[in-house]
Amino acid sequence: MLRPLLIAFGLYEIAKPEPVIDACERIGLANPEDVDRRPWALWGARAEGLAFVWLLARRESGSRIVNAALALAGAVLVFVPDPVIELSQTLVYENTEDLELKPWVKPAARLLGVLYLIVVALSARSGPDEVESDETAESE
Length: 140
Hints:
single chain; 140 residues; 7 helices
């Protein structure tokens, strides 16, 4: 159930990244109306959605590089979110000095890290169709 939901979210993020970014800005910034977003911010969101879809929609194991990168990002976000928050602000916004972070940005970043780790864990598991076909192949 979770896998199709995350795939749908990834597809939505690829197709319409702006509402996703807007929601994140409303959650994390006290002044979301004052942001000066860099042009490539939408492409970064699309890349995140693509990673989700790539890892979760494949019936075989996803790319080891994408898996490893997402797992590393997830672990860093969970345990040491500050550098990633600062880096993402620098990459996404031109006016980082004007951003007013809400107090729950760090817990929200940790939750995002957990989400990344869930995607990695789900991508490592076989889907139900693959498990059945493997059992059938072994019995023949």
